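Q: I have two molecules that I believe assemble together. Could you output structure tokens for the complex as a whole instead of separate predictions?
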Amino acid sequence: MERNSQLIKLFSRTIREILSRLPVDFERVQEIRLRVGMPLILILDNREYYLTRNGGLSTKGGDAYLVGKEDIRETMEHVSSHSLYAFEEEIKQGFLTIQGGHRIGIAGKTVLDGRGIRTITNISFLNIRLAHEILGCADKIMPFLYEHGQVLHTLLISPPRCGKTTLLRDMVRQLSDGWKDQKGVTVGVVDERSEIGACYQGEPQNHVGIRTDILDCCPKAKGMMMMIRTMSPTVIAVDEIGSREDLEAMEYVMNCGCKLVATVHGNSVEDLRQKPVLSRLVEEQMFERYIILDNHGKIGHVEGILDSGRTKLYGGC
Amino acid sequence: MWMKIMGSILVIVSSSALGVWKAEQWKEHRKVLEQIRKMLLLLRGEILYVHAPLEEAFQHVGRKSEGMLAEIFCQTAERIRKQEGELFYDLWKETVSGYRKEIPLTEKEFEEFQALGEHLGYLDLGMQERTIELYLEQLATTIDSYREQERQRTKLCTSLGIMGGLFLSIIMC
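A: Yes, here they are, computed for all two components at once.
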């Protein structure tokens, strides 16, 4: 319930009242969506509900509470701790991460300058994605991450909202602390969106292990290079790779003796073959393990684990 | 006779002391404005160069300073941390108002100090810079005028005190 009250404080006064009457544990809540003039929506156990003014859940839009402009403005003020200016860089990217690792997605009118997006104004859409730390959620896949006592290059493939960051965080923790009779190794996490460690004033809010170093809010490509040069990690972990620079840095990491554990959006290894740069890494069998999550069962369901030659090691792939 | 002389001396001394105290008050007033200016410069640094959120910035500046202004800054940081659902301007106004009696500022200066919170935290770094700069400019003008008048005022208050005392003692005698 402590977590509930912490989360409720993020919202405008009216929405706070609604949420405080909500008879639901926030551990089960995945997202809360605010859109100007539209119903207040809550995603709970993968199902969408409207929130009514008296704090009830409804599947009919008619009695839903309609979000006002003032709700969004107040919510933005609270999520940024009255300091929107301190999140300028994050706002440019369309989201900000707050204490506890929760991610606030924002959309509105983008203002451009010569170098790209300068800021987002008239913010009218918010998606509050609640971070859930589940210790032990990687237990099932840990045996597949080692071979002859060595950690393997691993790629976690998953569509959005399937729990890949939660799984990656627990993998990092277990690699760092040591799993069963495997010794713990130094893990360098490049946490561009502060989602893995959820650092607040430099201190990780989540359990990431005793041998983990975190470069917070750092672009992945630059961060991976910095980590190698400065912290001599055995394993480097990054979330949501995708850009050409990321992939070049990953190649560098893989070729200099470090092991890489990364996540990427997708449904299967076949999907990766459609992506121009990533396909080369797949073809060259750079990754020794692929862990594929799906959104059919419950969140974090592992559809399959493959080796570098895409031979099934686990699951129904 | 001795009683009259003693009484006159007492009146002259106390009215002179009153004059000196008034002059000191004037200086004190200027010193408070200068302290606000120093703290605002620190706050500007925290915001512009460290990109510290308001909670952190107010706390750092409050800890580096002394007196009731430091208390105001620390209390503001504490109230931001508690997240009780107020907007920043309301929170700042309320905190500052709580110290109205202790802060030796004129009504106009106090209003300007309160108005500082109206645009803080809102929009981008440029907006923070402009808000603080605007207030710093107002402060600089006020401090300058206090400095200019300080010598005259001090002289005036002290002389008025002594003269007033002499005048009273002459009348009484």
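A: One point stands out. Chain A touches chain B at residues 9, 13, 16, 74, 77-78, 80-86, 88, 119, 201 (CB under 8 Å).
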